[in-house]
Structure formats: C-alpha cells, structure tokens
Amino acid sequence: MTDPGPATLSTPDAPLRWETFARTGEWRRALATARLSGVRPEVTDVLEDVVNVQDAVRARKLPQAKRVGAGLREALDRAAEVGLTGEAALLRSLLRPGTLEAALAALDGLGRGTGGETEPEALRVRLVPALDHPLTRPEALNLLGVLHALREEAGEARALFGEAVAADAGHYRALTNLGNLELEGGNPAAAEAQYREALRLNPEYDGAHHNLGVALRRQGKVQESVGAIRRAQRLSVRRAQEDSREEMRGRGGGLATNPQLVRWVLIAAGALVLFLLLRSGGGA
User: Fold this and answer.
1) What is the pLDDT of residue 216?
2) DSSP letter string, the chain
3) Residue 60: how many other CB atoms lie within 10 Å
4) Which domain of life is it from (predicted)?
5) pLDDT at 243
6) Quick one: 153 and 175 in the same domain?
7) Intervals of the chain under pLDDT 70
8) What pTM value is reported for the model?
9) Residue 268: which domain range?
10) Do 232 and 251 meet the contact criterion of CB atoms below 8 Å apart?
C-alpha cells in the first residue's frame, strides 16, 4: 500500500522530527522519519504498531487490529523503561491505548448484537468509542456513510465519506464508496477517477478494481473493463484465502486438521466474495 502523498522529511533550515508527523496523525511518515533519524527502536516499534493498526482498520481486518493494538501498552511501557519517558508520554497522549482498545471493540462488535444497526442514530451511538479515537474515527464515519447509502440517502452518505477521507486521506474504501455514489448517480468518469485514486493508495484492493471495471464498461471502454474485473476476481479469491488462513491462526488452526474441508471453505469464501461484489459493486 502506498502513502497518501509525497513527504518532505526535512529542509536545510528546519529538519522535521517524527513528533511533527505523529501530532498530525501521519503515522507512516512519522515512522519513516524516525527510522531515517536513527531514533531508538523502542520508539520505532510503537510507531510500526500504530501503522499496522491503521492499515488493518482501513482494510477492516479488525481482529488483526485488535491484536496489534493490545500490544501498544507494553510497547509504550518498554519505551519508558529505557529512559524515553518524554517520547512515551507523547505517544501515550496521542494514542490513548485504553480508548483505542474500546474503539476497536466497538467496530468489531457491529453485527454481533441485535438491532440498532439499521438506524443511523442508533448506529452512531454504538460507534461513539470509535468516533472518539483518531485511528478509528475515519472507519466509523465510513460505516455511517454506508448505512445512509443503503437507505438511499446519497447526500448524507457523501458527506460522511468525505469526512472519513478528510480524517484519513489513505482510507481507500471511503474513496471507493465516493466513487460508488458517482457511479450510481450516472457519472462513470467521476467514479473512475475516485477508483483510480483508491487504487493508487492500495493497488491490491479488489473492490476498487471491480468497480473500476463497471465504470469503464459504462464508458464503452470494454477491453479495459474486462481486465479490471478479471484482476478483481483474482484478488478477491486471494483475499478470501488469506482471510481464511488468518481466521484459522486465530482459532489455533482447527480447520487445518481437515485439508479437504479447508479446500471447500476457501472455494466457498471466494465464491461468496465474488457474489457480493457483483451484487453490491464493492466498497463498504
């Protein structure tokens, strides 16, 4: 996955510090700057964990985000123990690890309860912990936008997707959802631009490839359309396989004892992803 845009790490008069990027929530740039500056590994370990949490939330791999996020407290404690008290205090104030754990739990808990997820205000209440943390707020806004889109409330959905992107310029799924609104509104060229921007951020995102294919087809670009949709199909099957392996690791490898069952689970998962993409046009 690529960064939202180019970064200038330093100038002759004012070399930038990783703290500058951390304070503005540009965690990947903070990590790159820390590495180039020779910052102690106890700090770069924390920054790397934050980047991994952010990437997992963007991809909606919430169990993975929760596992990495749970280790942030220990990583911050290690930084303080080796004398990096100022750095650890700054990171702790920005990351609020306890709040982050609650925020990730709120995102991961959606769909596991009963009721409250078909009304925007009820969903917003359930998402309060996620809306309150900068690492999860973009995804919470995106989820609210998806609900409004499903309710055919395009104006509200567009505003929320825009808020999500403003909060996290690297949130490629929110960008894809903006493209979906353009596509549904009869603007395939505008949709194409949004999908290509999403793919600049994450070239492996199958949903944006599929929807790009649809937008290209509606513009009469048939050959390009076929190529995009074929790539989406390959990526969606691969993603289903990766998700299945990740789930098996989380369960201690229970399914691995039956290779034939694993094979059918993977095939079914791939088919389900393709069906959902074709039915809904990806995004979400």
Assistant:
1) 96
2) ---SS------SSS---HHHHHHTT-HHHHHHHHHHHT--HHHHHHHHHHHHHHHHHHTT-HHHHHHHHHTHHHHHHHHHHTT-HHHHHHHHHHH-HHHHHHHHHHHHTTTSSSSSSSSHHHHHHHTHHHHTSTTTHHHHHHHHHHHHHHTT-HHHHHHHHHHHHHH-TT-HHHHHHHHHHHHHTT-HHHHHHHHHHHHHH-TT-HHHHHHHHHHHHHTT-HHHHHHHHHHHHHHHHHHHHHHHHHHHHHTTSGGGG-HHHHHHHHHHHHHHHHHHHHHH-S--
3) 15
4) Bacteria
5) 73
6) no
7) 1-14, 111-116, 246-283
8) 0.82
9) 171-225+258-284
10) no
Answer yes or no: are the C-beta atoms of 105 and 129 closer than 8 Å: yes
Distance of alpha carbon 47 from alpha carbon 29, whole angstroms: 10
Tell me how far apart the alpha carbons of residues 284 and 206 are, in angstroms, rounded to a whole number: 12
Judge whether 162 lies within some domain: yes
- Which residue from 129, 161, 155 is spatially nearest to 142, judged by alpha carbons? 161
Question: What is the tally of structural domains in the chain?
Answer: 3
pLDDT at 276: 40
Instruction: Read off the amino acid at residue 11.
Output: T
CA of 260: how far to CAs of 88, 248, 257, in Å?
48, 14, 9
The pLDDT assigned to 248 comes to 66
Both 61 and 142 in one domain: the answer is: no
pLDDT, tens digit, 9 for 90 and up, residues 130-142? 999 999 999 999 9
pLDDT in tens, 220-272: 999 999 999 999 999 989 888 877 776 666 554 443 334 443 333 333 434 44
pLDDT score, position 239: 83
Distance CA 53, CA 133 (A): 13
For residues 199 and 222, give the distance between their C-alpha atoms in angstroms, rounded to a whole number. 19
Greatest extent of the chain over all pairs of C-alpha atoms, in Å: 63
167, 187, 212 - which closes a domain: 167
Q: How many residues comprise the chain?
A: 284
